Amino acid sequence: MTTTIIAPPEAAGQRLDRFLAENMEGMSRARLKSLIEARQVRRDGVVVTKPAEEVIGAARYEITIPPPVAAEPAAQDIPFPILYEDGDLIVLDKPAGLVVHPAPGNQDGTLVNALLAHCGDTLPGIGGERRPGIVHRLDKDTSGVMVVAKTEQALATLSAAFAARDLDRAYLALCWGVPSPAIGEIEGAIGRDPRDRKRMAIVTRGGREALTRYRTLAVRDMAVSLLECRLATGRTHQIRVHLASTGHPIIGDPAYLRRVPAAAKGLAADLRGLLLDFPRQALHAYRLGFAHPRTGAAISFTTRPPADMLGLIAALDFSAGMPPDMAET
User: Fold this and answer.
1) Cis bond leading into 181, ω under 30°?
2) 59 and 138 share a domain?
3) What is the DSSP letter of 182?
4) Residues designated as active site
5) Strand ranges across the sheet with 60-64
6) Which residues have CB under 8 Å from 319's CB, separation 6+?
7) What is the total count of domains within the chain?
8) Whether residue 296 sits in one domain with residue 172
């Protein structure tokens, strides 16, 4: 596909890749820079190769966009709940147990494989590949709302919103014990645990600043709490690390709950067993709101936790403490 743009006189002197990005919907400046360097842009029939060259007024620029090549991950028919979809993005409710992106140990069977099968040839392509744009991630065993970009422009705009925390993002967590105060903040730089590289930890050197805000929604026997958590930053395992650092690890967390917590001793044996046997971290991204990357309209999505976590919430008599905007689905 070839797109033609006639530079107006007032554009003279502008940087070429910036000018083209401002005049081509759905194309990022980074992508246009790569096209220029790949000799896919002509000015009045002459190939240009320098993204920083100055625009010439009244010049005719022809941009050739090669068809997107197939992404390396294979498309796999894996069902996942879709909350909303249009030509720019997909909002989904990620199930617990589903890895977001192929990686060592999880080369297939991921959300990316599922998205490639779902979207097929409708993906316009990102970076020259027909692939979805992963804006943010949830851990394998964390469930909840995610947004995925289908175009370069949507990826750039949404990524900027996440980086600036210009969105509404809330989690539900079941943790051991009762945080004090009931509403507060946990701050501490997060980096790789020097004693176990598979885990994250609060570190004094080499970490990245992190801040988690929480609000206690319900408490059972001073042993278990239902929390709403919000991220002022978005670091790997942030909520899990911060809660564990205060002595209130998330129920079922395989990485940060290493022993039976003292708080468990105050519970009836059947309830204690139910909580200690929970096979994953009881963490759910229940709400995500943001501005649509193309229209700017505010959109928001809320989902209830999956059945296994709802079972714990019911067993703890926490249902009345659930956020009021969490409608039945």
Assistant:
1) yes
2) no
3) S
4) 139
5) 2-6, 60-64, 41-43, 46-48
6) 313
7) 3
8) yes
271 and 240 in a common domain: yes
Query: Is residue 196 located within the same domain as residue 329?
Result: yes
The pair of three-digit structure tokens given for residue 114, joined into one six-digit string: 């599922």
Q: For 158, which DSSP code? A: H
pLDDT in tens, the chain (329 residues): 789 999 999 999 999 998 998 888 767 788 888 899 889 999 999 999 999 999 999 999 999 987 765 556 788 899 999 999 999 999 999 999 999 987 766 678 899 889 988 988 777 666 555 678 888 999 999 999 999 998 888 988 999 999 888 899 999 999 999 999 999 999 999 999 888 878 899 998 889 999 999 999 999 999 999 999 999 888 999 999 999 999 999 999 989 987 888 899 889 999 999 999 999 999 999 999 999 999 999 999 999 999 999 999 999 999 999 998 774 54
Closest among 162, 137, 142 to 256, alpha carbons compared: 142
**Domain range holding 6?**
2-64
Provide the sign of the torsion angle of the four alpha carbons 75, 80, 86, 89, taken in this order: negative
Contact 316, 224 (CB under 8 A): yes
Helix 269-276, helix 307-315: angle, nearest 10: 160
User: How far is it, in rounded angstroms, from Cα 199 to Cα 217?
Assistant: 28
| End residue of a domain, out of 134, 164, 194 | 164
Residue 162 structure tokens: 């996440």
For residue 307, CA distances in Å to 78, 191, 273 come to: 19, 32, 18
281: three-class secondary structure by DSSP: coil
209: its two tokens:
């600043």
Same domain flag for 160 and 172: no
Q: Which of 164, 193, 216 is the last residue of a domain?
A: 164
Within this chain, do residues 297 and 219 fall inside the same structural domain, yes or no? yes
Q: Give the CB-side neighbour count of residue 85, counting CA atoms within 13 A.
A: 13
Closest by CA to 207, choosing from 242, 183, 172, is: 242
d(CA 28, CA 68): 15
Please check whether residue 188 is in contact with residue 222, taking contact to mean a CB–CB distance below 8 angstroms. Answer: no
pTM over 0.85: no
